[in-house]
Amino acid sequence: MAEVTDKDPLALRGRILKEFEKVQAEIATKPELWRKWSFEAHERLREAMGVDFLDYPELEFWFSRFLQGNFELDYDRSSDPKARSIIDLPLDVFNKIGEYLQLKDRMHLRDVCKDFRYQVDNWDLKLDEIFYNGANEWRVTPTLGQRSFWVCNYGQNEENIFSYCPYRNPTSFVMGALKLPKLQVDKLTILDQDIYWNELIEELNKSNQKLHVKKVEFPFYSSKIDLHFMIPTVLEEITMVLWNPTREEMSKIIESEQCQSAKMVYIESGACTSRFPLDALYNCPRFTLRLREKPADGLKSKFLKALMKYGDVKKCVLYAEREILSYFNEPEVKVPNFPSLRRYPISGTNDFYELEHVVEVNRYRHQEEFVSLERKH
């Protein structure tokens, strides 16, 4: 169809006229909103014919003529003075303007024409966070002081074009943002993986695209943790709150590329130590584990010793009280003048595991105790 319109501009103008006739009555009622309806017509044509079918300025020109009662489709535009637009600005000025645009305006600007799209795609897009708690509650927080936009009552607001958020549907937003090649998301928080979230993952799978996310958090009790849609080499931190995960569920998470390459995997569980599948963590290179129950120092010390013997851990943090050190009292592993420190040689190498009990004050000013186990050389 694009080839036909290149050879026959009348066909293109006729298509625009049909779109105008669809909204002519509404424009007559509220003429001040004619650009709103022209933009919606442009979106319909893009959806039906492809994103490069028609630039918005061309459609806007013909809508403006039709609005004035000029319906001659064979009007020769070659004699018109060249209209100056923002794209005629020097590139550095255009880019400077882009720095001050809100996220929704960037997304809209990208859809205006191919020239704009090329420039917008070369801008960095950094988001502090995408927060998702179901389609009825999600928000996006851009970097550099831009205000967040958020969505609630998705079903009611889906068609509300006056909503601050340009994308009521999270799938629409994420897939639109992924068209920006320089998209970077610092943190993704997922509370509820509902049908809309599953639709988003399906769309990502179909597009063979993954999210550029540095940190992901699943702060609500769940064992259904899916990480495959994030770029493994980009993802640095994974935080998850699990209830009573099975060994199979835990192993599937740990064996993912994302967990294997992450700088740290934070795991919190309400399960007791005896029920948590600790052996699934033998192959997790870097992790922090917090189990919400009484000390269980015997089980935890047994796990740490097995981890040093059978595991492939580079760094482990296990929340435990100081008494756990009584299980690591072999004279040869104690370090003089450092009563909280132990060092275990790794057979066949020059490396060793350093085990240390640490007491810290967290951000809530509460004292916390844990054991740090790290491979060193």
From TrEMBL:
InterPro entries, alphabetized: DUF38/FTH_CAE_spp (IPR002900), F-box-like_dom_sf (IPR036047), F-box_dom (IPR001810), Mos1_HTH (IPR041426)
Domain of life, source organism: Eukaryota
PROSITE patterns xrefs: FBOX
CDD domains: F-box_CeFBXA-like
Domain F-box: residue ranges: 83-130
Name used for this protein in its record: F-box domain-containing protein
